[in-house]
């Protein structure tokens, strides 16, 4: 039967003009559709988005997923597909994956990411493989990869980092500290200017005595 705006009573064991399907055939799921203030029953082969099929001896029903941002679910508390923009992880939906897990974009799932250990202590401050002879150097710390990611395409976080440091020993024992090239050039230029000035001053004095 077709009751105008109501759904066709296909698959119904009983149907009414006001309420649509009331009971469904054995293999179908009863779904109560709501449109504004009005609601009516339908008998479906599979439940719509946001619902899952709950089979009972009395009658199979479509029950709403109780998981936030879930598009389809296996049971009340386990989501199988999240809404657009959300990642699926252990039956839940997340905007971003939890710590220790990485986003697999093609499937919009959270998979086990690259697990790294704790940072080591900062190493010795050095420069050019020397721990003396310079004012500033670099010190490095590292950490190990404890568990490789489930997918090769998932990158691991950095396992080594360096920072600028001040050397504890400025001058190497038993060796001369060499002034940097720039400082040498400046000192040499200053010395040349002083010598030139002294020479010009001597010439001036000699000329002045001659004129007298």
UniProtKB/TrEMBL annotation:
Its main location: secreted. Residues 114-167 form the Spondin-like TSP1 domain. GO terms for cellular component: extracellular region. Residues 9-110 form the R-spondin Fu-CRD domain. The keyword Ligase does not apply. It comes from Hippolais icterina (icterine warbler). It is found in: Secreted. GO terms for biological process: Wnt signaling pathway. Residues 176-212 are annotated as: Disordered. GO terms for molecular function: heparin binding. CDD domains: FU. Belongs to the R-spondin family. Residues 176-191 have a biased composition (Basic residues). It comes from the Eukaryota. Keywords: Developmental protein, Disulfide bond, Glycoprotein, Heparin-binding, Secreted, Sensory transduction, Signal, Wnt signaling pathway. This is R-spondin-2.
